[in-house]
Each structure stands twice: as C-alpha cells, then as structure tokens.
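> forwarded from #structure-qc
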C-alpha cells in the first residue's frame, strides 16, 4: 500500500496524547475530570493537562469536560532556540498522519513565554512553511489548494520548549451554546463550572448567586445537577476529520451523554437561585437557562444583595460580584461587599465562595477567608475567596434544604 493511502486509513487502536488547556489555577479540577472519564494523565502544567486517549477520547473529552478550554492532539514537542531549529523540527513531524491532501491547515495561535523565539507572526510563518515542505514530499505536489476540512494548529513556546497541538474543538469549549445574552462582565462557563467543582456543593445542597448576571453559575450548577454534558449541543472542528476519527464516535459520545442525563432531578429536588438588581439581566438569565434546558431548575429573581436571605441551612453562596474594573464603579464596592457580609452573617451555617479581582474583599467581609486561590480570568488576576461555614450534621439530609 502506498504511503498516501496508508495514512488515510483510520487506525481504531491509535493512541494519542491529548492536551486540554484550562484556566490557570484550575488544573487539579480538570485533572480529576479527565481521570473520571477513564483516561491516564501524562502531565499537569500551568494552564494545561495532558492525557492519553484513543480516537473516541477526542469526542468524549470535547463532549463531557466542563472545565477545559479545548482539546488538542499533541503532534510534537521539542526545544528550539533559533528559527532554523524550529523549521527543521516542524518539518520532521509526519504531518500526513493528521492532515489529508486537501486539508486546510494554519497556525491559529502562537504564544511565547520566556523563550528566545518570541514573535508570534514569525513563528506562525515558519511553522506553516515547514509543514508545507514536509507534506509536499509525501503528496508529491508543489501547491496545496487547501479546500477541504480545517486543521488549525495552536503552538506554545515555554522556555524554548515548543509544543504543537492540532485543535479538535474549534470554538472554545466554554461556549456551550446556551449563553446568547450576556451581562457586562460575564464569567466564562468553564470557569464557573470549575469554581463550583472546587466547592463541596452537590445537588442536595442550596446554591444562591446574589450577583448572577446572565445566570452562568446557577446554569452550570443545574447542568451538573441533572448530569447534562456541556458539549452535547454544539459542534466541533474534528467532527469532519474522517481520517482521524470516525463520525460514529461523535454520535456515540452524544448518545452516552443522553443516557446519563438524570431526568429525576426536578425543581422540587434542587434549590438553585440567582439574583440581580437589573430586571433586563434577570430576563436574559431566564432565557439562557431555557436555552440550556434547565429553566425549570432555577429560580431567578430581581433582588438586591441586602435582601439576601434563606430559611434553609448549610447552603452555598457562589458568586462573581463586581470587581470595580470599570471607571466609577470602585466607589460603590465597599457598600456592596459590606451588604454581602451582612447577608452572610444572617446565613450563619452557610459557606461563601467569591471570585473577584477586588483587593479589599476580606476587609469588607469583616473576616479573613479560610482559603484563597489565585485564578487567571483571561488576563485578569483574580482570587476565589472561600469563607467556610460548619459542615451539616451527618445523616440529616432532610434538614439541609430547610
């Protein structure tokens, strides 16, 4: 069999090393998710978890992982300190294993940190040229029309170590498809999910977000409560990569996700609430919850934080209050966080988890956080402050929800 025919065969037993980028500070949460899916971890580094999986793992990871940014096939990793070294190393990769003759390929993003090669545009250009040179020798052509399916690359250089990944996801995995209406500074869906997963919350416990905005935190909690996979209602770039992953594997992943939905979870069995002072934002949150298929599980209400109260015990405040990052907003923050503190004192058995870039949270909450964790929300450094309440009594679940 000729090499060009051989490379187009699907190898059902092929193993891949897959890279799952995530928010800096959430690596442990993502690692646990991947392990729970049944895959072995290769490495955990700042902002990414690498793991081993077969072709089915590509589909399952895209459909099921709540906290990942995207799923990349790791094509190569090597050290390069000059553009000549970069070119030769990229050219030595057998790109025909991944990219068919009519494939459209390019470097969608290049990021360089503490490396001697630091120009993204030069890195992108050199890598593209090297890939073309390698594929020309295999396909015996001098020009590629690139009129087939897309195979975008994402490249990172960290301390001169180059990692090449082929992006199977396309749009970031935080784009579940339900959030068409957003508030001013929405929390990314995968960061909201990761934040919830850092807490001991489960569907038996109350969750209130007093600054819910477009509803992301309550909606992500509702998806977890009903065990709805985050990626089951969206599309992925690799769905068309018949040379790497059969179409049926995507259907199987979605069917698996459908089978795992817990339809016994109802409004009567969970207590999820979201408040905001803006009625238009509350309307947006309700619409987003409807689009996510969980509008029946969440109570959204126009309510200021100083009216936050609940009859139940051992609940959770999980929220993303304003940071004051916009001009004129900082002046309002002391009053806002003081009101949050007063409400939290009334809920004396509750725990609160607050993600914010505001530096005086503990000052106005009136107590030091039991824990705080640094998280990068995009390029913004934020912290998750954990104010822990008492644990509920053992074997008295009937009293937890009040």
């Amino acid at each position: 069999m000729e090499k060009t025919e051989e490379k187009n065969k699907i190898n059902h037993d092929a193993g891949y090393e897959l890279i799952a980028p995530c928010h800096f500070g959430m690596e442990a949460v993502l690692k646990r998710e991947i392990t729970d899916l049944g895959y072995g971890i290769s490495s955990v580094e700042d902002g990414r978890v690498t793991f081993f999986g077969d072709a089915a793992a590509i589909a399952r990871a895209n459909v099921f992982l709540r906290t990942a940014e995207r799923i990349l096939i790791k094509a190569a990793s090597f050290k390069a300190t000059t553009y000549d070294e970069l070119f030769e190393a990229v050219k030595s990769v057998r790109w025909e294993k991944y990219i068919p003759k009519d494939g459209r390929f390019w470097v969608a993003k290049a990021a360089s940190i503490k490396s001697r090669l630091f120009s993204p545009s030069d890195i992108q250009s050199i890598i593209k040229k090297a890939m073309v040179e390698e594929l020309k020798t295999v396909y015996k052509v001098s020009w590629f029309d690139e009129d087939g399916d897309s195979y975008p690359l994402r490249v990172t250089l960290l301390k001169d170590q180059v990692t090449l990944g082929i992006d199977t996801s396309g749009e970031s995995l935080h784009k579940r498809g339900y959030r068409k209406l957003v508030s001013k500074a929405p929390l990314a869906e995968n960061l909201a999910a990761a934040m919830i997963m850092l807490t001991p919350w489960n569907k038996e416990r109350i969750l209130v977000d007093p600054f819910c905005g477009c509803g992301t935190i309550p909606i992500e909690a509702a998806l977890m409560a009903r065990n709805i996979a985050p990626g089951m209602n969206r599309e992925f770039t690799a769905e068309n990569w018949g040379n790497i992953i059969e179409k049926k594997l995507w259907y199987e992943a979605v069917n698996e996700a459908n089978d795992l939905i817990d339809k016994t979870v109802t409004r009567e069995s969970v207590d999820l609430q979201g408040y905001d002072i803006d009625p238009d934002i509350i309307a947006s949150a309700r619409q987003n919850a409807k689009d996510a298929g969980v509008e029946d599980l969440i109570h959204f209400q126009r309510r200021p934080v100083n009216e936050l109260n609940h009859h139940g015990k051992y609940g959770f405040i999980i929220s993303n209050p304003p940071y004051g990052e916009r001009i004129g907003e900082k002046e309002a923050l002391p009053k806002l966080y003081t009101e949050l503190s007063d409400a939290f004192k009334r809920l004396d058995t509750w725990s609160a988890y607050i993600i914010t870039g505001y530096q005086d949270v503990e000052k106005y909450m009136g107590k030091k956080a039991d824990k705080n964790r640094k998280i990068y929300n995009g390029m913004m450094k934020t912290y998750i402050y954990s104010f822990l309440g008492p644990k509920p009594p053992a074997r008295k679940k009937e009293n937890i929800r009040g």
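QC bot note: Residues 61 and 71 are 7 Å apart (CA to CA). Residues 120-139 form the longest helix (20 residues).
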